[in-house]
Amino acid sequence: MDSRRETLKIIGAIGTTCAFPFGADELYGQHAHVPKSAEGADSAPYKPKFFSETEFAVISRIADLIIPKTDTPGAVEAGVPAYIDSVAAANKRHEGVFREGLRWLESKKFLKRSEAAQIALLTPLSEAVDKNRVKTPQQRFFLAVKNMTADGYYTSRIGLLVELGYKGNTVLSRFPVCAHPEHHG
Fold it and tell me: What 3 state SS string does 68-96 have?
């Protein structure tokens, strides 16, 4: 698990938005993450705009398998499923990819499978994506979900501040000296 999380940190750090071109201008720099109320509890359950409730549950489960909760919050806690729903709703090019992929997963009874069986079903799709061999509709679907999961997570408050430890732009009155003597000259 650590190597997958480390890999996702690297992907997030170099800007996954470059890896997934969006067609809707309103999505640039904006992310529809589900906010928490001041008390820390959900103010209201998220109502999907693009997906049905069952489809949203499938997307949530896949996002959770891609970036699970560990010592830091996972994709679901970061509001990634709502982000994916917003992106899909804003760009009609995604409709065919998502509908076909979700139909295929429904035919496989994805949500009724054990976690191990879900992972076994998705692993070949992930391997094809990782090797740039995306050919089937199922692989295109998984590529879209995987990219949107990484993008949504690492641009959310949880991904950016908690997971990556981003402190924001800080002004330094002095720059620390390099600790490597060979760099002093």
Answer: CCCCCCCCCCCCHHHHHHHHHHHCCCHHH
Please report, for residues 5, 48, 51, 153, 180, the alpha-carbon distance to residue 86 in angstroms, rounded to integers and kept in the order given: 24, 8, 10, 14, 47
Within the chain, where are the H helices? Answer: 2-13, 53-66, 80-90, 94-107, 115-130, 137-154, 157
Domain count, the chain: 1
List, for residues 52-83, the tens digit of each pLDDT value. 999 999 999 999 999 999 998 999 999 999 99
pLDDT confidence of 22, banded at 50, 70, 90? Answer: very low
- Measuring CA to CA, which residue among 110, 113, 7 is closest to residue 57? 110
Q: Supply the range of the domain harboring residue 139.
A: 2-183
